[in-house]
Amino acid sequence: MDELDLMLIDRRLRRVAEAWVRSRRALRRAPERAADPFAFHEIVSRVGYERVRDLPEHDPLRQPVLRWLYRLVDDKACAPLTQARAAVRVLVRHPIERPERGELSLAQLAKRALLQDPRSRYYLDEFLLRAEPLAELGQQIWLRRLEVAQRLGFASPDDLELPEPGVYRVAEAWLELTDDRAAEFRSRDFAELLTTSMGFEAHAGIPSHLNGSSLAELFRETALFDSLPLDPGPWPSPLGPASFLRALARLGAAFVSALAPKDQPFVVAHDAYGLRRFEHGALLSLLSAERPFLARALRLGAGTASDHQRVFGRVLLLESRARAARLLLRRGALAGESAFRDAFEELTLRLVGVPLPRASAGALYLPRADEAQRFAGALVAASRADELCEAHDEDWYRNPRAVDQLRAEAELPPSIGLTAERLERGSEALRARLFALLG
Question: Do 382 and 430 meet the contact criterion of CB atoms below 8 Å apart?
């Protein structure tokens, strides 16, 4: 097979990407079962990347193939560290004496720290006491990512990955814009902030089990998801209302993947960093706070719906600030370990009200390779929601014309970038929406 036939490479990259997604999902819950997605695929290598890079620039597949190759080569290079971190998080068990006697993994401690339970703060303390190996591996992953970028001819991963060069500036502005409202929820106690960010008060109407059936029931009045082969991956554990919003986000992302254009090469139909997936995920999360959705899908009365809107507004605000902070931590991580820990102290002081231990930088709020797309998607989803409400009213998700519009748009090749103006418009739309919910 001609290695430089880009259509053949595209088909191979589809197979690699599918195995890569399965492996990433396994690493979260059962890292010992995660297969190597890159075995037998020599094209996913520095040599493969450079050979494609040397092809004529006029070939329309060259750039999207390079983008996917970069993402996969980067992940392959980081795989030993990523796998070690997953094992430290999930497989290694630690003896604890309080709040119960037993042996728990860091993943189990973190999950218990998010429960609506008076003992949750003790689980958080135990997590923080034992998190340093996890943190160190997180920092090493970002140093490795910088090394990979430089070996492939870039000064930084930012040169290829950011959807807009000014996204760091927008993240800084978002924290400034929301500092005053977020101050209402600071307590100088990280455990209390976690409880606040889960939104436990808004439990009425939310499915007790988060799965395809329970979420499909909420959209019984719309054809938005009809006949789509949705693959959202594992649903989040139902720890509270914040988990419900994350489940909706996964549903929105799966909607985009299911409708990706079938008449286009894989590398064109799917963006390696998932900007459109995150935008649609955030769009459904915002829908959860719309009065018609609360009334019709969750079947809440007017008073309870108003209470839910305030709580969901708080959850969405705190999550948006955490996304901005993780994005800014990405910049710190690429500047070295000391800069990363400095940024961690500064940003956790801003989020929590007290700086978290430097040793936990890399264990908490660790940025992901697609962090800029996650943050940008949350912003532009707000302006998209405004457009849908204006064109189709607040219950747009039930409107057949809106459904046809969204499905038709999802069948077009996704954009991989944004304009600064669109980011700014999204920031203002999200600010107005969240502040209105908070009252």
Answer: yes
The predicted model scores a pTM of 0.96
Q: Buried (b) or exposed (e) across 315-349, using 16+ Cβ within 10 A? A: bbbbbbbbbbbbbbbbbbbbeebeebbebbeebbe
Kindly tell me the sign of the dihedral angle through the C-alpha atoms of 320, 322, 326, 331: positive
Percentage of residues of the chain with pLDDT beyond 90: 95
**Assigned domain for 110 exists:** no
Kindly report, residue by residue over 10-64, the tens digit of the pLDDT. 999 999 999 999 999 999 999 999 999 999 889 999 999 999 999 999 999 999 9
Overall average pLDDT of the 369-375 stretch: 98
Residues 260 and 357 in one domain: yes
DSSP strands (E only) in 303-434? none
Structural domain harbouring 146: 1-91+131-159
Distance (Å) of CA 14 to CA 44, 61, 82, 237, 267: 12, 14, 22, 29, 8
Are 282 and 389 found together in one domain? yes
User: Residue 352's beta-bridge partner residues?
Assistant: none
Q: How many helices (H) and strands (E) does the chain have?
A: 19, 2
Q: Which residue has the tokens 């003790």?
A: 122
